[in-house]
Design a protein that fits this description.
two-stranded antiparallel sheet; mainly beta; 4-stranded antiparallel beta sheet; 90 residues
C-alpha cells in the first residue's frame, strides 16, 4: 500500500504509523462528563468501506495525516494534513 503525503509525495506505507480512526480529531469538551469520554475512548465502529483514519509520517516529514480509504480494498480516496481536516467523523 502506498500513501501520498501532501508534503513528501507518494511513499510506502511502512514510513507511516496507523493511529486509529479520525474521530480522534473531534475530542469532547474537557468537562463533557464520564459517559461522553467513555464513549469517545472505547466505543468505535469497525466499518468495511470508506473510513477516515489518522496516520503519522514518522520516517518522513513527521506530519499527521487524515487518510480516506476503503478498508475492504485499501483504495485511497484522499489524503490531507490533519491540521487542515478539522473535526472528523468515521
Amino acid at each position: 500500500m502506498r500513501i501520498r503525503c501532501p508534503l513528501c509525495g507518494e511513499r510506502d506505507r511502512r514510513e507511516f504509523y496507523y493511529k486509529g480512526a479520525a474521530v480522534a480529531l473531534a475530542r469532547p469538551d474537557p468537562g463533557a462528563g464520564a459517559e461522553v469520554w467513555d464513549a469517545y475512548l472505547h466505543l468505535r465502529d469497525n466499518p468495511c468501506g470508506e473510513t477516515r483514519e489518522l496516520w503519522y509520517h514518522e520516517a518522513g516529514c513527521s506530519a499527521w495525516l487524515v487518510v480516506t480509504r476503503d478498508t475492504g480494498t485499501h483504495q485511497m480516496a484522499g489524503v490531507e494534513l490533519a491540521s487542515a481536516a478539522g473535526g472528523a467523523g468515521s
